[in-house]
Amino acid sequence: MDLSRSLRHLGRTRAFARVGRAVSRLDLRLQRATGGRWSVLGRPTLPQLVLTTTGRRSGEPRDAVLLYARDGDRWVVIGSNWGQQHHPAWSLNLLADPRARVTVHGRGVDVVAHLADDTERGRLLDALRAVWPGYDDYAERSGRDLRVFVLDPL
């Protein structure tokens, strides 16, 4: 089994989510230092980006490493928060200020985000599940609808 298939399988477990939360800051630092060429798991085998939002209270830049799906020239991300009951801070930041920055493989692009409406949500969820099947498990554990955001390049 290749690494990405193994990760997709393990990613459905609570233990993996706990570990993921614990190492996410280290992963962010490593990705920043290497321009996205390395993550805590080695060379990324899943599509990852760094999303930089503006903190809704602090006004300071806030970074999060996220998996993504593509929809044409747009990026699609989901606020799974590893299956926790509350929405991730970055999603609250996007709701307060939809302007953000996406960095993929060391290349930054300014974007504007919108919350997917019901019509596009189903189609986009299928694309996100293809990247990470664990999103359904996260939604079930969290007891909430996971927010799906579309990031349009400016």
From TrEMBL:
GO MF entries = coenzyme F420 binding; oxidoreductase activity
Transmembrane regions: none
Catalytic function, reaction form: oxidized coenzyme F420-(gamma-L-Glu)(n) + a quinol + H(+) = reduced coenzyme F420-(gamma-L-Glu)(n) + a quinone
Q: What Pfam families does the record point to?
A: F420H2_quin_red
Q: GO CC terms for this protein?
A: plasma membrane
Family of this protein: Belongs to the F420H(2)-dependent quinone reductase family.
Xref: NCBIfam families: hi_GC_TIGR00026 (TIGR00026)
The entry's protein name is Nitroreductase
